[in-house]
Design brief:
The structure holds 2 protein chains of 2 kinds. Chain A has a single domain (4-94, 173-323), classed as P-loop containing nucleotide triphosphate hydrolases (Rossmann fold). In chain A, a hairpin with a 6-residue loop joins strand 1 and strand 2 (26-40). In chain A, strands 6-7-8-3-9-10-12-11 form an 8-stranded mixed sheet, with helices on both faces. In chain A, strands 2-1-4-5 form a 4-stranded antiparallel sheet. Chain A has helices at 55-62, 85-92, 112-122, 127-140, 157-169, 187-204, 215-221, 239-244, 249-256, 297-301, 320-323; strands spanning 4-19, 26-40, 44-48, 70-75, 78-79, 95-98, 175-179, 207-212, 224-229, 232-238, 306-308, 314-316. Chain A contains 11 helices and 12 strands. Chain A is globular. By secondary structure, chain A is α/β, with parallel strands linked by helices. The longest helix of chain A is centred in the middle third of the chain and has 18 residues, at 187-204. By secondary structure, chain B is mainly α. Chain B has a single domain (26-61, 81-294), classed as Orthogonal Bundle (MetI-like fold), CATH 1.10.3720. Chain B contains 11 helices and no strands. Chain B has helices at 2-19, 24-34, 36-58, 90-126, 128-143, 146-157, 161-188, 191-199, 203-239, 251-258, 267-294. In chain B, helix 4 (90-126) runs parallel beside helix 7 (161-188) and helix 9 (203-239) packs antiparallel against helix 11. Chain B starts with a helix and ends in a 6-residue tail after the last helix. The chains are: A alpha/beta, B mainly alpha. Chain A binds chain B through residues 63, 65, 85, 88-89, 92-93, 96-97, 99, 101, 104-110, 118-119, 122-123, 149-151, 154, 164, 167, 171, and chain B through 21-24, 190-192, 194-202, 205, 209-210, 213-214.
Chain lengths: 324, 300
Amino acid sequence: MSEVLVRVENIKKHFAGTRKFFSREREIVKAVDGLTFDIIQGETLSLVGESGCGKSTTGRVLLKLLEPTEGSIHFDDQEITHLNENELRPYRKEMQMVFQDPYASLNPRMKVKEIIEEPLIVHGIDAATRKKRVNELLETVGLNTYHGNRYPHEFSGGQRQRIGIARALAVNPRLIIADEPVSALDVSIQAQILNLLKDLQEEYELTYLFISHDLSVVEHVSDRVAVMYLGKIVELGSKTQIFENPLHPYTKALLSAVPIANPRLKRERIVLKGDIPNPANPPSGCAFHTRCPFATERCKVEEPKYESYGDQHFAACHFVEELA
Amino acid sequence: MEMTQTKKEQYEALLLEEETVRSPLSEFWRKFKKQKLAFVSFIIILFIFVLAFIGPYITPYDITEPDYENVLSGPSAKHWAGTDAYGRDIFSRIIAGTQISLFVGLTSVFLGAVGGTVLGLAAGYYGGWVDRIIMRICDVLLAFPGILLAIGIIAILGPGLGNVIIAVAIFSIPVFARIVRSSTLEVKSTLYVEATRSIGARPSRIIWKHIFPGTLSSIIVYFTMRIGSAILTAASLSFIGLGAQPPSPEWGAMLSGGRDYLSMAPHVTLFPGLAIFITVLVFNLLGDGLRDALDPKIKE
């Protein structure tokens, strides 16, 4: 069957916050608190959730831009959790990132061709091949070769994101972590970039970890979806499972908030009360109980298990059966 | 038909305008030219540089030969800035002294800038104990008033122009280190540096290709501003006899030579003083203009 490209086991990323006044302890922010999931070769796995739930941190930990506090990361059956920067370099070639903000992720002092060339230089490719490859990449992402001589500030957001994608593609990676690649763009441009990502996936057999808070975008690109809340995965399943048969009340609430282009369609809207709790001080029991419309006393005390509900569909809620 | 023709031309002109690529350099030049005062200063500095190179060959009088018939004579058509206690032409000596002051100013600040930049980059990029050690040493150096520190260093090394350069360079290091460290921290936290890290680039590449160019504009600005104060410090040290020794036409040494005749022949100190004043002023004005032109936060 399908081959697992990345296996993430129980990774945690805790940040030490500011020290409290008159106290020696530091506040610990559990940005990512025990995630376990696989990314299968060739698929698009989406991570969705509100801002501050640890989606981006997860992406950065996978790329080892941040050191995980706990847990392990396997890439292609090879553990990469504790590799140092030099040992990691061959793997950097295999996994690249596309960043959310196409304005900040390109060095304003470098020409576009220098930006795209950089990964090739870092991975020791000779000058002639580099030049050819840069031109090739510019055309692959829908730009022209003469764009290479310009600076990033001369491009629109969508074009810059294409440059970011070209840079990520330069070394022929197998995995691309796309951290909200379209959330900074106009809706009309979003579709172009999403389609570009899809085309590239087919052409180069790429695997995507697609981080987003926009469910309509996620529905468009994903094969599987993982829903995160306060540093944990609350539900994971195929796109159809998540969108048509959500198990977790949080997923249901998120889905009910997606606008539908039919004003006459009647549906139940689950409105979540309050804000996302402070991850430095998460609620006891089920982290979602403070906002869950179905919460009971049990949810306040007992943390629900993350269990399979058949056919690779996982959720963490005490009342999956009752709510179905 | 004619209308459409002009419209088409206008459109093409517009396209052409969009095609012109504004590199960071041309953008800088465009902004810099708008700074009138800085631009004038820049022209004067160019002139000072020319004087520094050709000065010794164009002096109207010999700068060391005494002329006892014209001792301490005031400014006249023959001696534009008058003569000093040995009858030497002050105007010629100022011209000849330009290269000394400029050389001292430039080399000392250059050495200080190189040292400070290396330390600042290291402190900012690596952080932790590297940062703590470097910055504490800088704090200690900064706690001394500049001139006092320079006098202290010269007390160890002995007087002379070469040691003045070293002294001024050493007390320039901590200021550059601080400035470079703070812009390093700023650039290091940008997304494009993170992107470069995710590519697998080595720290040397990140520092050299991304962080250093990002700090360069503040280095250039401060470099220019610092030249003025370095020239001033060097002149002060020569004035108190720790730098250039007579009969060298160093401006500070000339001031020192004229101070005994301040009441009867003020021109002996006035003109070298003016030379120092103008040079320091134009470098500072240029620095101000560069800052306004290079700072990306000040747009238009």
